[in-house]
Amino acid sequence: MTTTASVTGASTDLSAVIGGSNASEAGSADRFLKLLVTQLQNQDPLNPMDNAELTSQMAQINTVTGIENLNNSVQAMHASFLQMQALQGASLVGRDVTVDGNQLTLVDGQLEGGFTLAGPADAVQVDILNPAGQVVDTLQLGAQDSGRHGFAWDASKLADAGGHTFRVSARLGAAEVASLPLMLDRVVSVGLDGSSGLVLTLERSGDKPYGEVHALN
Q1: Max Cα separation, the chain?
Q2: pLDDT above 90: residue 174
């Protein structure tokens, strides 16, 4: 009598054989196949295992192997992406970028800053503060749309324009509109961080993830 070898009597649990969440280990597929061959060799000819389960478990081991290969490919792509980011980031050294902050920057005799509005406002006011925190002037910018805006203040009469800051207040009728102050800063160097990716070292703000840069200037 000829017996067709199939697989189910000994009921192999693939997830137990290949170690569940540790299935990415290199020897997991070999262990599974060796156990499967042993079961086939020792099965009861009168009660053969089911072909459907053999097919199902072979599909599982192929899926596990495919996932492991995919993970390796993703890790290699991530490493290449970080290297590419570092090369691109090197071109930013010496350039100005826009980041969160309320420090004013002297440009051609004017102190410049910026802000973003969470919504439209019918009255926007910017107070210019000296290094002691005292208001030295106020700019009335009127109505502004939501989004990013810039402003400039004449600093030509100041003996020393360093250390000046600003604050923004915006309203729509009686309601306050949320605002975020923005400032210019210069990139001194770039580096890579395992969790944040490309990190810029800025002249005044220190280290900033590239994702926190609002604009390149």
Answers
A1: 108
A2: yes
- If one counts every other C-beta atom within 10 angstroms of the C-beta of residue 89, the result is 19
Helix (H, G, I), strand (E, B) or coil at 10: coil
In terms of DSSP bridges, do strands 110-117 and 147-154 run parallel, antiparallel, or are they unpaired? antiparallel
82-88's contacts with Cβ under 8 Å and 24+ in sequence apart are 82/192, 82/197, 82/198, 85/192, 85/197, 85/198, 85/210, 86/190, 86/191, 86/192, 86/198, 88/198
pLDDT at residue 66 greater than cutoff 90: no
Give yes or no for a contact between 117 and 146, defined as CB atoms under 8 angstroms apart. Answer: yes
Task: Please state, in angstroms and rounded to a whole number, the distance separating the CA atoms of residues 156 and 110.
Answer: 7
What pLDDT does residue 205 have? Answer: 94
Q: Which of 47, 49, 27, 25 is nearest to 37 (CA)?
A: 49
3-class DSSP assignment, residue 32: helix
CA angle at residue 59 from 56 to 62, to 5 degrees?
Answer: 155
pLDDT at 202 over 70: yes
- pTM, rounded to two decimals: 0.61
d(CA 73, CA 216) in angstroms, rounded, equals 32
The per-residue pLDDT for 53 is 65
